[in-house]
Structure formats: C-alpha cells, structure tokens
Amino acid sequence: MEYSYPFSTDWSTEEVIDVVAFFEAIEQAYEKGVTKEAIMSKYRRFKEIVPGKADEKRICNEFEEASGYSSYRVIQKMKQADEQTKIRM
Q: Which family does the entry's similarity section mention (predicted)?
C-alpha cells in the first residue's frame, strides 16, 4: 500500500486515528472480509467526525482515487447484510 489516507487538519489526533481505522476496515473488506458489526461501528464513528454528506463523499472519493477501494460500495453492502454477515467485496 503506497498511498496516504485523506484527513482534515481540523481534526484532533484521535479523530484522524478513527478515520484511518474506518478506511482500514474498508481495505479489510476488500482483502479478507470484515464483520458487519466491525465496519458499522467504525462507520458510525466516521460519521461523528464527518457528519456532512458532501464532506463524506469528498473524503471517500479521495480515498477511492488513492486506493481503488470504494467506501460507498462497502457501506451499501453493509446496510443490506444480515447481522452476522461478513462483508467481503
């Protein structure tokens, strides 16, 4: 992996760490699979930090351009999955 994660200079260190953890969960969904519960908790925290839809879309698009992994597709699959499902792209 030779790319950087998108973040805002307005965020605290803890917020940056939590956003990176969300994007790592997206990577994991593509590479190994991740439980719905794990991705959902990281997404909820991400939405606390980035509450606006426009900002969410911009940041997720930056991540997708850098990594090739679509946060949108993982979140859509998570929303449709049963509780005990492992999300794998």
A: Belongs to the UPF0223 family.
- For the full predicted model, state whether its pTM sits above 0.70: yes
Choose among 7, 3, 2, 1: nearest CA to 60.
Answer: 7
Gap between the Cα atoms of 15 and 48, Å rounded: 9
Q: Name the phi and psi angles at 54, rounded to 5.
A: -65, -45
Q: Which domains does the chain have, with CATH numbers?
A: 13-81 (1.10.220.80)
| Contact between residue 49 and residue 15 where contact means Cβ atoms under 8 Å apart | yes
Query: Residue for token digits 């992994």?
Result: 69
pLDDT tens across 49-82, in order? 999 999 999 999 999 999 999 999 999 999 998 8
* Tokens 């917020």 belong to residue: 15
